[in-house]
């Protein structure tokens, strides 16, 4: 029997909590909450109110501190949520994997019915544009569809035994209790691909599907969610009952989580930072390069772990690409993230705006030339201009720093060897991409002397991964894998089983012990 607890270190999406817990604020009766304004009446379709409980264990509750969720597009309060002050685990019934797959199918259908309003809430609370908010919920739906089929395919091989009358098999069983610590930038998708895959392996942790569970005579208490601060995250990491901790967030915090989990010999699944690069060679199709670099560097206001932060351009195409990309930057439509015509929304918090300004100053001090952007927009909310720098050295400290803001560092290179080396010289190893028509170069890029990242693309940007492949990276990105391929193995434990169905007792390696 496998159990799951969900903890969102920074925020919870509409799928995992009543509202996101963002900032601790003293006043419970500040300016008018958005939830009470007619423009945001759709929030009540999700069962939200002015004050919401942040603990779910079959019913909603909460006895901890009250926090207020703010919209990053205007910094106005959305609603309030009460946190938990203790960690609670609940057990899921041990039912066959295909039956769990049927539950996941129904969860996907439930998400489909609410996809637009849920996407709107992601947009309102996180700040990403509406189409990305809906797309994030769609990613959860897609993972549910994937998991349904996977629920009938999980299994280990039957291996040939060297001993007569013996069978050698692999048996996969649930790993136990899984703690999911999610990040603010993809509150639905990260939780979703953990949950859907973990569920078919024997886990549940999703409150919005309470109706689905009840329709299938499953108690709501099999879903457990807690909402709190670093104390709850630390409790999850240190608790020996939590067999697997899945953490998505910064490398700095990930190191702390990893040390706490490893100290007790627990399992960890880490998806941490990324300092991702696109490399553009002299034979690249620039009509693909420019929109790819634009989306990968500006999309989600630079707040994706797969955001392109380094653009390496061959010296023969450097000036043309910079000119075309700067022109494209200036045409990006910014505004309210829930406006369908908006392509670029705000940063998540005021603190992120300060990080943006600090990075701008560091880039200038280290020799960078500002091509465009570099300022905070004069409007309500946490809006900053998407920014391009040229002229920085490939190993400049700021270039090697992952700043979670829309700043792109353009670097000029001469040879394939130096471009590949520069891609790999940063500490992170999440996503990477080259643009070229040279098939020999493509396979060198994919090979052992090419990219050292977990995601290695050709003629597409670094962001926008599909759910069918394993998602994750190497080095300081943490080494974990989520979503597709054989990522399900992270949520299970493997036993090698030898069965003797003969009347003899031969020993392996021909050993005689008589």
TrEMBL record:
The gene is ALDH7A1. Homotetramer. Keywords: NAD, Oxidoreductase. This is aldehyde dehydrogenase (NAD(+)). Residues 76-495 form the Aldehyde dehydrogenase domain. It holds the Pfam family Aldedh. The keyword NAD applies. The active site is at 271.
